[in-house]
Amino acid sequence: MIEGRDYAIAATVGARGRQEDCSGLNDRPPPSREGSPGLLAVVADGMGGAPAGDQASEIVVNAFLSGYGRTNLPSAAERLVFALEHANETLGETIRANSAELTGERGESPGCTLIASLFFADRYFWLSIGDSLILRYRGGKLERINPLHVYAFELDELVRRNEISREEADTHPDRLALTSAVLGDGVEKFDFGEEHLLANDILLLSTDGIDTLGEDELAGICLSNENDAREIANAIIHRIETIDKERQDNATVFVVRRGAYESDEADTEVVRLS
Questions:
Q1: Comparing C-alpha atoms, which of 158, 95, 80 is closest to residue 125?
Q2: Which end of the chain has fewer CB atoms within 10 angstroms, the N or the C?
């Protein structure tokens, strides 16, 4: 667990043989024209079924943090996009240089999802690729901020156009397949946004392993521990481990509360929690 005045990370390996989630932070990112941010938080989920997913997520988190710090682009948005491009290029270069170690028997390459949030005093910028989650707890309600890049949304559009039935969409074997990820060979698509950060807002950056808990249960955990990010993170992971779901995926949650990411000393850290 990494603790700060109001942010914390917790994780579980679940029922998997290894931890393929990785998270990282910089608690004093360089300023942009929007001001001086107080925290850059990054979470990546190595793609299950692909080789070296654990290495991919760690490479991407490291490269994203270093990429954000090395550019002089003026805006936070430009810096985040540059960091994504740098992370993607770094993964690609690493795969090409170590193809025998990092590629599978059928030539498949490692990859990962990525979510990142850059926090200022009263707002935050976010970037998302894949199916990891950015959730906001506000006023007793939990809301997903980012769209998910999964085939389900394309299937739902086909239903809307009456091209397939709702049953066909709901039972499609590829419904949960990713439609975009960081793969080192060009980013298919990503989403980006800016949101206001209100007093008592709680942000959860998480991998999809926390889907074991429904929105109501997550909201209840936030409500019960709303003054302590560490308690929220611990409670979420403890509840997942208590359920002990068969084939439970890796789960990582990075919890941030407004007003507590001012730091006297800069720190950059990459974390893989078992």
A1: 80
A2: C
When the pLDDT of each residue in the chain is averaged and rounded to a whole number, the result is 90
Query: Residues near 70 by Cβ (< 8 Å), separated by ≥ 6?
Result: 86
Q: How far is CA 182 from CA 85, 134, 235, 264, in A?
A: 9, 17, 30, 33
In contact, 45 and 57? CB cutoff 8 Å: yes
Q: How many CB atoms lie within 10 A of CB 121?
A: 14
Q: Do 23 and 43 meet the contact criterion of CB atoms below 8 Å apart? A: yes
Q: Is residue 264 pLDDT above 50, yes or no?
A: no
Name the band, by pLDDT with cuts 50, 70 and 90, for residue 263. very low
Cα–Cα dist 7/233, whole Å = 9
Domains and CATH numbers, the chain: 7-271 (3.60.40.10)
User: Rounded CA gap, 191 and 227, in Å?
Assistant: 30
Q: Give CA–CA dist 112/208, Å, rounded.
A: 12
CB-side neighbour CA atoms (13 Å) of 79:
24
pLDDT category of residue 269 using cuts at 50, 70 and 90: low
CA 271/CA 174 separation, integer angstroms: 31
Q: For residue 142, what are the contacts with CB-CB under 8 A and spacing of at least 6? A: 135, 136, 215, 216, 218, 219, 222
Sign of the CA dihedral running 182, 185, 186, 188: negative
pTM above 0.85, yes or no: yes
How many Å separate Cα 9 from the centre of its chain? Answer: 12
> Which one is predicted more confidently, 274 or 103?
103
